[in-house]
Amino acid sequence: MPKTILPEESQIYRCFVDLIRNADRVFFAGLPGVGKSLLLQQLTLMALDAGRAPHLLQWDTARQPFESPRYPLDQGATHPMVIKAAGLWLRGALPEWDRAHSQSDAILIGELPLIGGRFMEIARSKDDEAESLLADKRTQFVLPVPSREVRALIESRREASIANPAHVNEAQDAPPDLLRALWQDLYQVALQLGIVETSANDAPYSPEIYEATYRHLLRHRQVKVLPIDEPLRPVVSVYDFDAELPQLIAGAEQARTVLRELEATTSIPQVMRDSANWYKL
What we know:
By secondary structure, this protein is α/β, with parallel strands linked by helices. The chain has a domain of 189 residues: Rossmann fold (3-Layer(aba) Sandwich). The protein has a five-stranded parallel β-sheet with strand order 2-3-1-4-5, sandwiched between helices. The termini are far apart.
């Protein structure tokens, strides 16, 4: 089985020990290319060692039941109807998961990109059953913030792993040009929110702007910021667990039901318009 690579004296390790003891739901939030998959893997391995029973929530897996010939991937981009449906499903699925595992050692470990609206429903405060669960102290949102140097290293590693994948999922990772495009998208959000004041056509990655923007998106949630100043060096693929772990994912009929209900209450043009304002809480 893959081993943890986190030094026990590191801030990340100490943070994870605390999460394993005191949280039942942990969500790594952030752009692709900030290390969420590696951190998810490392927390999962530590949780297993500590006797917890990890369940995983991963965007690239969870969106798949909502995709269809009607709402296909478009040059690697997820259709806004799929993004909206997956978020609505998750909002309802979390209380169900919690009821099913409230008396067990289960811990839900997930990743929330948020960019473009991917699972953004979880960040919004609503008057529903999920809200008390999402606001509970045993639900923690972790925001990894890589330094400029670490972010550049992640981009270079991504190019190499896509070209020579050690795991089938690595071939589907966002390539470096998409990572940079998504950062530019987030920079424009920061501009709209007043976090930055000067527009730039090619603004370089900034940890400060990145952290401030995601803090805004998660302002209704309990957030732990995790600075990543030193590169982590995985020895196996970040997708390798050597065992099948339970996944939180919609069943085929669940996905069809959510899509039918969404289609009955809105239109594709409206969802397309809403997707441009995904960051509004």
